[in-house]
């Protein structure tokens, strides 16, 4: 799935069924469902979940909590816009998702 396809799916009622929880979280966030996105990100106990979790807290304006989660994601808090960060994270997670599909 490309970033463009992922963005196009935002007009659907539900996220694409095959995508990971962290991509579902970004999809929910882009559709104004921060609470759902937060629950999904929290449920993923790895660096990808921490990265999305950090982004969500940055978006919320809780920079202290965001900083904590960026450190768990081995990332630094970015200075780019939230929209740019959403795209950056989406691209990285879609790359991982696409790699997993190719190896199956």
Describe this structure in words.
The chain is built from 6 helices and no strands. The chain is mostly helical and 104 residues long. It has one domain. The protein starts with a helix and ends with a helix.
The amount of helix comes to 55-70%
Number of continuous helical runs: 6
- The helix-and-strand class reads mainly alpha
Number of domains: 1
Largest sheet composition: none
Number of beta strands = 0
Q: Give the overall average pLDDT.
A: 95
Radius of gyration: 13 Å
Share of β-strand residues = under 5%
Shape: globular
Order of helices and strands: HHHHHH
Which regions have little confidence, pLDDT < 50, spanning 5+ residues? none
Cα(first) to Cα(last) distance is 15 Å
Describe the structure using short key phrases.
6 helices, single chain, mainly alpha, 104 residues, 68% helix
Q: How do you describe this structure in short?
A:
This protein is mostly helical and 104 residues long. Helices cover 68% and strands 0% of the residues.
Question: How are the secondary structure elements laid out?
Answer:
Blueprint: H1 3-8, H2 21-30, H3 34-42, H4 47-60, H5 63-72, H6 82-103
Helix pairs in contact: 2-3, 2-4, 3-4, 4-5, 4-6
